[in-house]
């Protein structure tokens, strides 16, 4: 347990930031396997691009931690852990290439939606608390996550899901 008692919005922000830091580190470890499992070149390149972006997002979180004098280590994001395990289970299934790619997009969008919710919440807390620089960095990452979700959605709807039928 991180706190004996949650008392302030600062406490909640710290929980959010620790959760995001753990989530992004787990994703950095998982994305290479997702890229390797993707058969469609556009999907594979998307995962590779998102890995580089996620590495930058980790650096942003570290900057926020340094700026606010917070230690973001020591917690495990169990939600991301579960989402990644779910994706790994899908990747172990015997599936056609087309169905696997569609499954990877679905698993990825679950991850993106989780991150969108977390970054939106953390950005609001930071803004409310007057941490303008932190809020700006969190909003930048939020926009990246939303963009990634949109791209995944377009790839699924306009191309990969049709191939999987």
From TrEMBL:
Sections of the chain in a coiled coil: 44-71
Record flagged with keyword Transmembrane: no
Key word Coiled coil present: yes
Domain of life the protein comes from: Bacteria
InterPro entries: DUF892_YciF-like, Ferritin-like, Ferritin-like_SF, YciF
Keyword annotations: Coiled coil
Protein name, entry field: Ferritin-like domain-containing protein
Species: Hymenobacter edaphi
């Amino acid at each position: 347990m991180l706190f004996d008692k949650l008392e302030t919005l600062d406490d909640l922000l710290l929980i959010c930031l620790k959760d995001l830091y753990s989530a992004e580190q787990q994703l950095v470890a998982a994305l290479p396997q997702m890229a390797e499992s993707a058969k469609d070149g556009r999907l594979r390149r998307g995962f590779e691009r998102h890995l580089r972006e996620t590495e930058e997002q980790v650096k942003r979180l570290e900057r926020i931690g340094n700026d606010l004098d917070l230690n973001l280590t020591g917690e495990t994001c169990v939600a991301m852990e579960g989402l990644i395990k779910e994706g790994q289970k899908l990747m172990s299934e015997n599936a056609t290439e087309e169905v696997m790619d569609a499954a990877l997009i679905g698993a990825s969008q679950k991850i993106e939606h989780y991150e969108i919710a977390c970054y939106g919440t953390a950005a609001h807390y930071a803004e409310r608390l007057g941490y303008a620089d932190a809020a700006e960095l969190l909003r930048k990452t939020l926009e990246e996550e939303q963009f990634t979700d949109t791209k995944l959605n377009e790839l699924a709807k306009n191309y990969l899901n049709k191939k999987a039928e």
